[in-house]
Design brief:
Helix content is about 40%, strand content about 20%. The protein is an alpha/beta fold. The protein has one domain (about 5-180): Uracil-DNA Glycosylase, subunit E. Helix 5 links the parallel strand 6 and strand 7 (about 135-140). The mean pLDDT is about 90. It holds the Pfam family UDG. This is Uracil DNA glycosylase superfamily protein. InterPro entries: Hypoxan-DNA_Glyclase, Uracil-DNA_glycosylase-like, Uracil-DNA_glycosylase-like_sf. It comes from Roseburia intestinalis.
Length: about 180
């Protein structure tokens, strides 16, 4: 296989209400073709997110964005450009990282989660700075992570998010009360 220099070509998903930032390493070939995150049909990311919130599996890019934003989740990748062989994270070299300040200065991120070990390793090496929100490493939703079935993945991700989801629910309740009394 041959190395190709590839640039990330689609935007992060976030808004000012985002509380959780999920980071992948770099889009797979399928994701690059689809111009959106976790585009490989065997990747379990969308099943995990839908499962956590007990929602139908989103099909379109708009449905996926809506699912994330309604639950105050931002999604991006650590890498802006790199040399890579196909979709192989282990082949990544000549990394140019994304500037995390784009999201961190425009959203209320309270926790950052790496989707798998490679994303975690790359974030720590290229992006992590003092004063950033806490960083967690989640088991990868990639089909290559066969040791984790969908139920186990969903449970692990939900447990990791619980503190942030509770904060979000408290904020929604407070906001509703304020609007009802306002």
């Amino acid at each position: 296989m041959e190395y190709t220099h590839v640039k990330h070509t689609f935007l992060p998903v976030y808004n000012e209400e985002s509380r959780i930032l999920i980071l992948g390493s770099f889009p797979s070939v399928k994701s690059r073709e689809n111009q959106f995150y976790y585009g490989h049909p065997q990747n379990r990311f969308w099943k995990v997110i839908a499962g956590i919130f007990k929602e139908p599996l989103p099909q379109t890019i708009d449905e996926k964005k809506d699912l994330l934003l309604r639950h105050r989740i931002a999604v991006w990748d650590v890498i802006d450009s790199c040399d890579i062989v196909g979709s192989s994270d282990s082949s990544i070299r000549n990394v140019v990282p994304n500037d995390m300040n784009l999201i961190l200065s425009n959203a209320k991120i309270q926790g950052i989660f790496a989707n798998g070990g490679k994303a975690h390793q790359l974030f720590v090496k290229y992006c992590h700075k003092e004063g950033m929100p806490p960083l967690g490493k989640l088991p990868s939703t990639s089909p290559a992570n066969a040791a984790w079935n969908l139920e186990r993945l969903t449970a692990e991700w939900k447990t990791a998010f619980e503190t942030y989801l509770e904060i979000t629910e408290q904020e929604k309740t407070f906001e509703k009360r304020r609007n009802d009394n306002g």
